[in-house]
Design brief:
The chain is globular and about 60 Å long. A 5-stranded mixed β-sheet has the order 1-2-5-4-3. It is 46% helix and 20% strand. Helix 6 packs antiparallel against helix 7. It starts with a helix and ends with a helix. The protein has 7 helices and 7 strands; from the N terminus they run αβαβαβαββαββαα. It has one domain: 2-Layer Sandwich (Beta Polymerase, domain 2). The relative contact order is 0.18. The longest helix has 27 residues.
Length: 168
């Protein structure tokens, strides 16, 4: 299980530009999904890659599922030569998504992200539309099973916005 608070704080304190995606983005917006990892979509600028590697370095990032004998060093160069990384860290599992299935890279994900307070800091969190598109594109049974609840949350948000407009 990941320490969400420590992971979010490590990234924000290092000024990493990222958007929380995946199940934790859904949870931050009212979903009852369970998740054991943190998925983020990160900006791929050289400066941000360096900040991201620096933020995670104290937590000994390593490739999830790879034998311990496989050498891995997370730095700006490694991040620039890959796109998506599934990591184990001392904080728990963190997935770094340079490209989010069904959505695209950081600019597309961040375009309609919402700001949500998470563990005492304001974070960009993928909109429900983005979460739905990415889960549909991933197509895994657990992602497809989450879609009805996410669609219902989206409909509820639309209805609440309409009610607010009608009250004016």
């Amino acid at each position: 299980m990941i320490n969400f608070e420590a992971a979010i704080k490590a990234l924000t304190e290092a000024a990493v530009e990222f958007v929380v995606v995946g199940a934790y983005a859904a949870v931050a917006q009212g979903s009852s999904q369970l998740t054991r990892d943190l998925d983020i979509c990160y900006k791929r600028s050289p400066e941000n890659l360096k900040r991201l590697a620096t933020a995670l370095d104290p937590y000994h990032p390593r490739l999830r599922g790879a034998p311990a004998s496989v050498p891995f060093f997370l730095d700006q160069r490694t991040l620039s030569q890959g796109m998506n990384f599934t990591l184990e860290t001392d904080l728990g599992d963190i997935d770094l998504m340079g490209d989010l299935s069904g959505v695209g890279q950081f600019p597309e994900v961040a375009r309609d992200a919402v700001i949500v307070p998470l563990h005492g800091v304001s974070c960009q969190v993928a909109s429900l539309d983005v979460v739905i598109r990415s889960k549909r594109a991933a197509g895994r049974p657990k992602d497809l099973a989450a879609l009805p609840e996410l669609e219902a949350l989206k409909e509820l948000r639309v209805a609440l916005k309409k009610d607010k407009r009608d009250d004016r």
